[in-house]
Model the fold of this input.
Amino acid sequence: MRCTIRRLLIAAALLIAALPPLAAYAADLPALVRGLGVSNYDELDKAIAKLAETGDPAVAPVLEALQAGDLNLRKSDGAVVVAKRAGSGWDLFDPLTGAALGPAERSAVERIRINNALRRSLGAALGALTLMSPDPAVRRSAAEAVFKSRDPAGIEILDRAIAKETDAGIRTAMQRARAAAVLNTDAPEAEKLAAIEIIAARGDRDGLGLLNTVVNATAPDAVKAAAREAIGAIEHRLALWAAAQNLWYGLSLGSVLLLAAIGLAVTFGVMGVINMAHGEMVMIGAYSTFMVQEMFRAYAPGLFDLSILVALPVAFVVAGGIGIIIERGIIRWLYGRPLETLLATWGLSLMLQQAVRSLFGPSNREVGAPSWMSGAFELGGLTITYGRLWIVVFAFAVFAALLVALRRTSFGLQIRAVTQNRRMASAMGIRTPQVDALTFGLGSGIAGLAGVALSQIDNVSPNLGQGYIIDSFMVVVFGGVGNLWGTLVGALTLGTINKFLEPYAGAVLGKILVLIFIILFIQRRPRGLFALRGRAVEA
Amino acid sequence: MLTRFLLAGLDTKAWVLLSVLAVLAVAVPFMALAVPPTSPWSLSMLTVTLLGKYFCYALLALSLDLVWGYCGILSLGHGAFFALGGYAMGMYLMRQIGSRGVYGNAELPDFMVFLNWKELPWYWHGFDMFPFAALMVVLIPGVLAFAFGWFAFRSRVTGVYLSIITQAMTFALLLAFFRNDMGFGGNNGLTDFKEILGYDIQAPATRAGLFVATVVALAIGYILASAVVSSKYGKVLVAVRDAESRVRFLGYDVEKVKLFAWTLSACMAGVAGALYVPQVGIINPSEFSPAASIEAVIWVAVGGRGTLAGAVLGAVIVNYGKTWFTGVLPEVWLFALGGLFVLVTLFLPKGILGLAGDLRQRLAARRSRAAAGSNAAKEATAP
Done:
């Protein structure tokens, strides 16, 4: 295949070399334009071809005018002019420079007529001109246009354009366009086979459509077989990209679940406290973001891009502080009574929701995205938005930070000591009530951080938290209580399963299936994926 | 013998409650229908319906108390059984509309015509007959509870984990019933009912009849539940609640003990839902929402778990409070409800009835101490 391309390139290069240098033509442009002033269609066709051969972008407006029927012959001197209607007469312009040539009588000019054959060659010539345009974007879209139209007239021009092209990406696009055009001709079999290979390398839906037309059209068997094979290859490739896309969506959803659940993994998993108000901590984080952004809008609109970064510590402190108050005020009286804790925190969540509704109103609040979080980029067949990418990065960063905090700091050591053996820890001089309060504050603060991230992708309303509470509990229970790694694996697994089910079952049914899966899973492993072993289990 | 078994479980508390219910069953229809509207003793139809609704909730609370108060299973998904019973009744009522719907299709309910369905889904067949529908009201929640409990109890899913998966169950059902393809009216649910057993559903006499039916159902449910908990089986049930492992080691089949109470409770909840729907006039997926189920838990907690009568009392009190607050101070209702959750769990772990019991005990203790004290004084002064 590479050999074929090289041969093509050499042929194209020779063709270019055989042509006189373009600069020589440029000088002759006015003369060539004058050559359009003929009434014989054949001669006009030749004149158009000559103009097109110059490859000069200045020719494009002339040909466009001819296509639109604006090009006229001035009877007085045989000059070719553009005529625009002005009152009862015409305003004349120079077709090349666009300079005004003054008014003229109605009868002073005669329109240069074209027929359908000429229209076709005009289109090809214009396509060729854009293919030679100095602007890379124009060249690329011209190549795409030829790929779509599959006009055989474009082959020759493409050959020249390919030889001249310096941008590798655009050259590939041109080669593909050429291949598409070749498949539309009755070119020899070998050439068609080469073309199919080039199209197959393109490997997207457009290529698939093209090859399907080849299979359905009359063509030699070898060509058809090659096209079928190429179709198979493309479909395989597309399926792979679709799977990759699903994987990305799954990762994205999984990281959202991870963010929502990771604070719960601390309060529920480490402390054994069922905090039904966890979702409201997330909501408070989101509203903190809103407040911070309002401040930035009011006092420093220029620094708006930094508002999210400022919101992170604010949300952590606000949600964490409220968490500590809750722990000191309510939860510490209910240790060892998990079901009562569940009810009390549920009541608390109702009160927090109503408080936010009274303060901020029931409607959604607008939280803006900083510029570095908006937009998207392409990665192969994937479209990845920056917002989602940052959330994935952020979720993993929070997870890592929490892991380090629990494993490597003295505070983490105290938390683990109290979790494993409260009385022994107390005997060793650890102030267990203080550790309890701070641990609960840590879990709530992380929920607040999640709120900052979720404010970017969800509606900031008093009901924000409710949507996440059940999902987060599912993640923690699925992953195994008391195990942060279990939470990570649980979140990513559930996110991915959900996204892979969605194309087949739809979003809602997919979610129902995931819930049923979890219910059944808990029957098999009542303590989750990564169950703690030993005495702590029964406590 | 059966009568003796049923009546054996009734204590003073129960007789008081049953007498109140009996009085209401006679007085409320009389006051609503026979007393002229100008009289201060007259009740509006609205009040009758509202009372009927409260008693439906009371039956739901009763069923929840049976599993939570006596078996230690905190169900956060009892609303699902309530709603399933309600949907079964709703399907019967939909079929009764017949050709009086907006589209006038004798066979298909309006929403199916709207969705361009050509024929009735298989699971809608039979619901035009009341006995079948009545059977389904009990059977569907019962079968679901049996299957769910069979798996969960056998795998020894207990405590918080069980609560969370009951919540997952009702959440999954909520999502499922929101789907139009399920054939239960999607978001809008089932509504616009015309008649029940041939009686106009809007007519005052029908409404009064439904109220009486609800009170009777509540009374039967109460008698049944108290018979169950005061029987030998009931003792085992309480033992399972307090020390599950020990009961298992003593040779009892703990799974079966729990499964019976759990399934019975789901059936009762289904009946409550079925009585609720004709009175309220609509059933939609929001009844499946986890929040609704948790609200039912607080009724039991407020009244006092493990007392049966407390569940009935709690349901009526909290729902009356809800009606009053949402009418007068709608913003405050969630604060009040939330505060109730917190206060009851912190300060009233045994609920109102438990508090009353505590007070009585303390009073009795003081009296006996006082008596003992005066006796001692007498003895001391005696020569």
